Amino acid sequence: MRMQGEGVSHGAMTVVNAVSTGRGAALGVDLKVKVKVNILERETTVSTGSTLLDVVCKRFLERMGVNGLGVKLSIESEIPQAVGMKSSSAVVNALILALADALGTKLEAKQVLKMNAQYSREAGVSITGAIDDAAACLLGGIRVTDNTQDAIVKSYAAKEEKVVFLIPKGVTRVDFKSKIDASLKHNALTAYTLALIGKYCEAINLNGFVYAHAFGYPEEPIILARRCGAVACGLSGNGPAYAALVEEENLKKLIECWGEIGRIIVSRVYNGEAL
Q1: Residue 275's pLDDT is what?
Q2: Which domains are present in the chain?
Q3: Which pLDDT score is estimated for 273?
């Protein structure tokens, strides 16, 4: 038996980081991840070399009532890993869709998102399940969520603008768990309220400053981006990447301002649906 499938998901940027409160928001970005799978009849345990992907494959096959199968997969991604650009959420979305495709199963978006959150928590890659990131990657637009309930609270489209990511040189991801305090939670909830009422640029700006300060990342890239024409800029995820929204007329200026700081990736807002 040899069954093949393919799945695609987009990326996202942070509007409000949910790690301190369990409530967050994210915005779809037009960077893509494609996963192709071959499901093979074997007696061996599923193993992809990644704890997260192993969990996804094992749990999904169990859910479908098929066991003792091997999964061979390939990943094509435009999203760098482990810098806060939602690569894990995007890959899990695409893998779930690819496995479903291989087994001839149709899934609703809410099923994909519930599985993504469950498997991400089980694998230990997300404290909250990150359904905000998963939803923005899968469906596009702005997705405001209550991650404690794995629920989308509000959805709306963002203005069509360029998205610019900065991965700064010499800045590594921090251990943030000990840095979450009452002040951070208060400010994060304020940013969440802004996202709920449609003021997502203000939410990005507030979230960016408070998390960069709390986690010990430089605030200068955010300040510089705003001076160079970005309408919003903040830390993406738990860093170290920054993400800015900018209109086309100011794109070149922002790239020049950030050019000496690190690697730049230019994309655009994604408001469509991957399903």
Answers
A1: 43
A2: 2-156 (3.30.230.10), 162-268 (3.30.70.890)
A3: 62
